[in-house]
Amino acid sequence: MQLETLRLLGFGPGGWGFPLLSAAGVTVLAAIFGFALGSVLGVTGAYLKLSRHIMLRLIGQFYTTVLRGIPEILIIYLFYFGGSLWLTKIMNISGYDGFYSLPGFATGVIAVGVVSGAYQTEAFRAAFLRLDRGQIEAGVSCGMSRPLLLRRIIVPQTLHFALPALGNIWQSALKETSLLSVIGLTELLRQTGIAAGSTHQPLLFFSVAAAAFFLIGRLSGRLLRKVEDHMNKPWRR
Questions:
Q1: Which CATH number fits domain 25-186+217-232: 3.40.50.1000, 2.40.30.10, 1.10.3720.10, 3.40.640.10?
Q2: pTM for the whole thing?
Q3: DSSP symbol at 79
Q4: Which of 8, 15, 141, 225 is deepest in the core (most CB within 10 A)?
């Protein structure tokens, strides 16, 4: 039994090692790109929600309220099938017949990023509100320009306060990549499903998937904690 398990999980003939490793790489890349896109949207959303203009605040509020209130899998469906429908219409109007679907990886990254951005918006907004306004006023009184003020005071401290929440959002983004199998992306969960169906060993392969997600989450969590500890050094002096 143990030899059969090693053969199935190995990298030799009949083994699923390479496909599973490749799928794990797709999962990590989708999570990284989705989280990075979410960071851009999160900073933008926080800026909108902190704006003095009511229309900008309403746009930011609408973004976070709607995206956090819709199930992630439904957002993936909307982006993939809705986007594919519009792409097909555009191509048909341009004289190209047939159905055109969006790339699964790109669509998945956008879907994960948009959802992650809604949560990162709140993380950055809350972190900004924790800033010591006295330091900002001191910087202004010293003649700091706006870019210098952002680089020396606002951005480092905002990131410092936001990091714990961003760590949790990263873990959520990583797990959300498992939903991308519904649009045909061969990420870790889909690949383990294919392996389980081909070998009739669902318990083995889904246990491997669970262990892989746990390991990736733990390793990335430790990396984020090291970054957080590094940024905490100025506050420990």
A1: 1.10.3720.10
A2: 0.90
A3: I
A4: 8
